[in-house]
Design a protein that fits this description.
CATH topology: Aminopeptidase
Strand order of the largest sheet: 1-2-3-4-5
CATH architecture: 3-Layer(aba) Sandwich
Shape: globular
Helix content: 25-40%
Oligomer: single chain
Length: 150
């Protein structure tokens, strides 16, 4: 998809449980395998959480991407928004869809009175680093992420 083909055809909207299969396809493109029923449950739960924003990008009836943002509160920074997920399918990359999804999340955050938004991007995804810089984000730190199963 080229930017000119997508421009007038993208609809940004909340996800529906009927989107779960298409969302699963998108997630697998970035290495996140999730069963359809689990995605249905996540869509339902997220629709009830006021401090989360989730939207999909649809082109001609096909979901081609999604974004998720969250309002965060911490001792060191107070309230801020964080982009916690962004996926655009391979066929729709570099068509403007990612920028539209991020803009929708930024608009949500601004409507909530939040003055900043942060995103973390895995070092193995250099294409996303240039994307975020291109749309006005600046790198503010490098960090390691540690996980412990409970």
């Amino acid at each position: 998809m080229t930017p000119s083909l997508v421009a007038g055809r993208v609809q940004i909207r909340p996800p529906r449980t009927a989107d779960a299969e298409q969302l699963g396809v998108l997630n697998r493109q970035l290495g996140y395998a999730t069963e359809v029923q689990e995605l249905v449950a996540r869509i339902e739960r997220l629709s009830e959480l006021d401090e989360h924003f989730v939207a999909v990008a649809e082109v001609d009836g096909t979901v081609v991407g999604w974004v998720q943002a969250e309002q965060r509160f911490s001792m060191e920074t107070g309230d801020k928004a964080e982009l916690i997920g962004l996926i655009v399918g391979a066929a729709a990359r570099r068509s403007g869809v990612g920028g539209l999804l991020v803009q929708a999340a930024e608009d949500w955050a601004a409507d909530r009175g939040l003055r900043s938004i942060v995103v973390r991007s895995n070092v193995i995804r250099p294409e996303s680093h240039s994307f975020y810089k291109q749309i006005g984000y600046t790198q503010s730190k490098t960090q390691h992420v540690y996980t412990k199963s409970l």
